Amino acid sequence: MASAQKIPAKMMAIAISEPGGPRVLKPETRDVPLRGPGEVLIRVRAAGVNRPDVLQRKGAYPPPPGASDLPGLEVSGEVAALGDEISRWRIGDRVCALTPGGGYAEYVKVHAGSVLPLPAGFTHTEAAAVPETYFTVWHNVFERGGLKCGETLLVHGGSSGIGTTAIQLASAFGAYVITTAGSREKCDACLKLGADRAINYREEDFVAAVKDATGGKGANVILDMIAGDYVTRNYEAAAVEGRIVQIAVQGGAAASVDFSRLMVKRLTHTGSTLRPRTVEFKAAIAVALEAQVWPLLGSRKIAPVMDTILPLSEAWRAHERMEDGEHIGKIVLDVG
Ligand SMILES: NC(=O)c1ccc[n+]([C@@H]2O[C@H](COP(=O)([O-])OP(=O)(O)OC[C@H]3O[C@@H](n4cnc5c(N)ncnc54)[C@H](OP(=O)(O)O)[C@@H]3O)[C@@H](O)[C@H]2O)c1
Fold this sequence. Notes:
Structural class: alpha/beta
Strand content: 25-35%
Distance between the termini: 27 Å
Helix content: 25-40%
Bound molecules: NADP nicotinamide-adenine-dinucleotide phosphate
């Protein structure tokens, strides 16, 4: 190992004691992870909570091979130790990171390519709310969906962690942003973040509303986390040569689809999941984010929307809040 601080052998972590409801999240004493070559050990100060953590807790989203069984896909903290072959980071650097799991703990090991500096002026709780949604939105909206300045983005679930990020980023890069959300309060929050049009999908048909807002043209890119009966409706709401990017299937993985719409409009329907991707792939996204997005965060042109901050020991309450569906933006655990 290149260098190390005094690091305890044991740490407190929140583990999934068995698949089930929020109360299966229980404190456990675990060994502090041993970093390998190219890996950074982070003393975690805050950990972001994401919907995939809820799916993992229920037993529906197992960690990829080699990843920690502890939940937690993003953290911020200080570099506590460095494996070999790392030149960029120093012990004590304030960083945030995308993790393949293990974030609900006092220490986590992460590949150096998934680590970024804290955006200028950010607290640890703010920084922990950034990596998972920014990596996901950057790849799916801009790289996979190819959203360009002047195009229209439709993002479903605009008040979610992912949605609040997508609205702000797309709007900052010059897109016209339409979003859906389940209440007036959530729609208002989306408009404040920069959405040009917010559709309460419980009261309005989003296909008609998108057509209306775009002079009949439709959305160039659609970021969808619903699937199910949204698939054909997304095809209806899309513009000619539109790109639909699937990042979740909350409305059901199976769908009856009218493919004639896809052919007639020459649509592209794609999708991805971030967690199992290679460290090289994630490192390339980190480079793009640091160059193009970190300056926007540092100048507060955009910022994570903080819903709730709870202590790590109350991770179960954080999951309850997420499953209640009342939150707007991000829920974060303060690790101390
Ligand atoms: N593929 C990937 O790499 C990746 C990575 C991270 C997250 N994800 C997925 O992205 C989604 C958001 O994650 P998150 O952590 O931001 O979770 P979250 O904050 O809990 O968001 C879930 C959102 O879904 C919305 N929703 C549910 N049904 C809806 C509908 N019919 N129309 C519009 N919105 C609807 C909810 O809003 P309402 O109350 O308004 O319905 C809620 O805002 C999750 O499904 C997650 O699994 C995917």
